[in-house]
Amino acid sequence: QVQLVESGGGLVQAGGSLRLSCAASGGIFSSYVLGWFRQAPGKEREFVAGISWNGGSTYYADSMKGRFTISRDNSKITVYLQMNSVKPEDTAVYYCAARRMGVTTTPHDYYYWGQGTQVTVTS
Fold this sequence. Notes:
With 123 residues, this protein is mostly beta strands.
């Protein structure tokens, strides 16, 4: 059983930067692939970025490419999401999630979820 706890959310102006962290406990962290998802009010949860077990492969939703960077530090059992050039439409609750198999963009494929952290981008 893996427990995930996100942090780093907050209020940021458009064009600014924010780094989210997701600390894990339980399980063998390096055996899981990790994803970041987000959910805005009234919208479905959507894929943001994913990373393979060793960090060698990363995946991004098209609207995040070039602005967001996912990374992981297995020694610190933490995954990060660096958000640059943020836009008001990036406002959402951001979740990290874990699964054993390869990265997918489908939320239902992920077994473990954090509680989420709110990101609000002001214009």
